[in-house]
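Hi R.,

As promised, here are both runs. First protein below:
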Amino acid sequence: MFFYLAKILWFIAQPSAALLLLLFAGLLLIGLGRVPFGGAAVLIATAGLLVCGFTQLGVLLLLPLEQRFPPPDLKGPVTGIIVLGGGIDQHNSRIRGGFALTDAGDRLTEAAILARRYPEARLVFTGGSADLQPDGTTEAGAAAGFFRAIGIADERIMLESASRDTAENARLTKAKVDPKPGETWLLVTSAWHMPRSVGCFRAAGWDVVPYPVDYRTYGWNQLGLLSARPSLGLTQVDLAVKEWIGLVAYRLAGRTDALFPAP
């Protein structure tokens, strides 16, 4: 129920969609003769779109998430590498052929680099289908093909293909892997997604080593610049707001061990 409710609510609550719906509602009200209310709605929506699109509001919201967990200073052997889903489009990969990476494709490429660097480590990909109406294809299946294509042996690859969100990633992967005390498991996911991911794994009783990738910001000095592409600004705001809401919702539902997990 949590999965379906989150999907449906976010569809209309994401800032870009909410502002566009407000703009439409304002124009509709003006057309119906409710000019004061309609005009106010149009003004608010337009201002919101301009701020989100042209300023660095998205960067400001993303930076605390991305800076929360620094890259680890790895010493000693690595038992395994856990890769969270979200980096490959299973539908595009199946229909078009090849391996279609998403904006979060760094999750797979960096995991492949780590697998080469630590040849004894197991490689675990966790991710099923996040579709409201699954068609039987899973992200894990597409990811497995990608890892095999770049030369990673089948015996090193473990797949968890039933999870639909981050909390299920953590719970189902732990059950499948059954980690032992003293083992070192790296968690590879986007830097902006790392706080919630770590919180989910800790809540599942697994103290993983965060390995953030897929940074969407350059650093605090980026805040003085205007966004060169309004579409990018809106995307960053949507991404950041979703993650902050996710942190609150997951904590209230007991799916993470802290509101804003820290190192």
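And here is the second one, sequence first, then its structure tokens:
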Amino acid sequence: MRRIAVLASGRGSNLQALIDAIAAGRLAAEVVGVFSDRAGAGALERARAAGIAAVSLRPRDFDSRPAFDEALFSRIDGVQPDLIVCAGYMRLLSEHVVEARAGRMINIHPSLLPAFKGLHTHQQALDAGATEHGASVHFVTAELDGGPVIAQARVPVLPGDDAARLAERVLAREHPLLLATVGALVEGRVRLLAGRVADRGRPLAAPLQLGDDDRLLG
């Protein structure tokens, strides 16, 4: 069983998907701690309801971003995670904490990276006239939304879509994408090899894709 720590700043719907999959026996892992930069984050309440340790620190209590990150990750290290999942964590991470955990930290982002990094991705996709949108899970590096992409889920952009409707459709695929990717990491199928994503030891030329059956296809 793999130990997972989750970082989240918001309501924690992806966290809940992990909790539910573990409880149902569909994911052989354990969430050992949930960490946030916002004391009022819904993710913390979800963690407490599931009996999971929930920790929040206030960035304003620290002199700098590196100091905050050092304090936060010292607490994360305390639960001894094998994998760190950023699921709606809205702060940039300092280079030193990222590099120290290379290949052990992933992030889920609501776009088909490298397109539409940063915030407001659904509106970005609409403004660009994209016909396809989706979500990506990638290894975390110091570059914003720039680490090697492990897997993606795709959804069509439909006539009449606005950002809210598009976001809802993407979110419905985010959850199975995250579960499938975490499962592949837990099983040892996927790992970071010499800076590239490897699937069963074979470096990928393109990200894995989430199929209609919620399995990752290479």
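A quick note on the second one: The longest helix spans residues 163-187. Let me know what you think.

Best,
J.
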